[in-house]
């Protein structure tokens, strides 16, 4: 896969290193000479130029890439790069960094953004997840489909404790995607049982009944 990353700051370089470790082809683009730390990601291609310019995107061969990542510290730049990549070059997938959560509403298909990543929102979700066992926490939203990735840590006393995944009737438009147990991610099979402390990652559609989902996961057995 070929990926062009606009923004060669610490975020862009970190993404590049991860992609290169997975054998992807990466180009980093930045207009600041101080960002050209080529030795820090020596296996990537580097381009000193303004990613908001069509000539730069053409030079970066954006029309040949599978994904463009707009990872600069300027939301306006990230929106422009995403829009140009999608409308002028037909890039299949655009991922944009949201620096200011107040701007998150703009990062949608109207601006050519397929996936918006808000670091403050993710960090907030992680804090909530750390202290809120039994609460549904929104980890990530897919702007194109409206689906969300939700997390809930199964609380002690849940009616689902010891229940086979295959025996759970999940609310419509919800799917159990993964179980994280003792720090290890598991792909749930029908025969796996749910245990207290399991971190459940659930994909919920835009029409999912989150109250019903929460009630299912935290409900306690009826007293006899």
From TrEMBL:
Keywords: Ion transport, NAD, Potassium, Potassium transport, Transport. PROSITE patterns: RCK_C, RCK_N. Residues 137-219 form the RCK C-terminal domain. GO terms for cellular component: plasma membrane. Residues 1-117 form the RCK N-terminal domain. The keyword Ion transport applies. The keyword Ion transport applies. Pfam families: TrkA_C, TrkA_N. GO terms for molecular function: potassium ion transmembrane transporter activity. InterPro entries: K_uptake_TrkA (IPR006036), NAD(P)-bd_dom_sf (IPR036291), RCK_C (IPR006037), RCK_C_sf (IPR036721), RCK_N (IPR003148), Trk_Ktr_HKT_K-transport (IPR050721). This is Trk system potassium uptake protein TrkA.
